[in-house]
């Protein structure tokens, strides 16, 4: 099994990589800046018996998808789009550069990567495409308008593509996390995080492992009849 994970140096990407790594697997671990963390994830995957390779590309750039794809030396059976970053602030104060960065990393380059790798999946009549969306892509969020819009676009891509390739044996789904305990929440104070937990019916933040478990299920043959779905993992927050 050959797996590509974008954003594998991040908290959620690393958890997914370490969950999926098994003997016989080839893991392609994309990162942008954090080579040290990517190497740690690679070693963890290899300790689990997988072959693992780190691939560097800046997915905020127009050419990011092409740079990533050209580093692959085998076809891919599973694509997991995790790379991304949040952008907070008033919509009227966002810049054109911020707009393009957010759309590139969360929407345009995932689309381009999938387009490049999908023909092999269709030819082999099997494959998985899994996107990491967000609760804000489902319900929207003030002060995160661009991020919410990009994730909503990703959801539309997932649902539409699934209808197009289902007959070819390819499943296309996404996971939409709620508030997950990662570095993305570092902008919040401890008091704000405690208030956030009180707002979540489960009474806690999610963990990267919670998301990795869901992605692992979608990547398995146990989920072969699940297609075109946005699976919300949010402790009943929404």
Automatic annotation (TrEMBL):
Keyword match Oxidoreductase: yes
UniProt xrefs under InterPro entries: NAD(P)-bd_dom_sf (IPR036291), Sc_DH/Rdtase_CS (IPR020904), SDR (IPR050259), SDR_fam (IPR002347)
Record flagged with keyword Oxidoreductase: yes
Listed GO biological process terms: monocarboxylic acid metabolic process
Keywords assigned: Oxidoreductase
GO MF, any single term: oxidoreductase activity
Record family assignment: Belongs to the short-chain dehydrogenases/reductases (SDR) family.
Official protein name in the record: SDR family oxidoreductase
Native source species: Alkalicoccobacillus porphyridii
């Amino acid at each position: 099994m050959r797996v590509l994970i974008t954003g594998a140096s991040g908290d959620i990407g690393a958890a997914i990589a370490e969950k999926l790594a098994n003997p016989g697997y080839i893991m392609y671990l994309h990162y942008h800046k954090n080579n040290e963390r990517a190497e740690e994830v690679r070693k963890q995957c290899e300790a689990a018996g997988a072959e693992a390779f780190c691939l560097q590309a800046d997915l905020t750039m127009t050419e990011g998808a092409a740079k990533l794809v050209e580093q692959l030396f085998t076809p891919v059976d599973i694509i997991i789009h995790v790379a991304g970053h949040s952008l907070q602030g008033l919509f009227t104060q966002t810049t054109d550069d911020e707009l393009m960065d957010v759309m590139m990393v969360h929407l345009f380059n995932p689309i381009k990567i999938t387009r490049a790798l999908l023909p092999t999946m269709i030819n082999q009549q099997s494959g998985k495409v899994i996107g990491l969306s967000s609760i804000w892509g489902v319900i929207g969020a003030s002060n995160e308008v661009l991020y919410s819009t990009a994730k909503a676009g990703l959801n539309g891509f997932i649902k539409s593509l699934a209808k197009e390739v289902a007959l070819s044996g390819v499943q296309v789904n996404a996971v939409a996390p709620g508030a997950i305990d990662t570095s993305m929440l570092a902008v919040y104070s401890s008091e704000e995080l405690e208030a956030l937990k009180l707002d979540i019916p489960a009474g806690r933040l999610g963990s990267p492992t919670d998301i990795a478990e869901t992605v692992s299920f979608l990547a398995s043959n146990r989920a072969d009849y699940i297609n075109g779905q946005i699976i919300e993992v949010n402790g009943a927050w929404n």
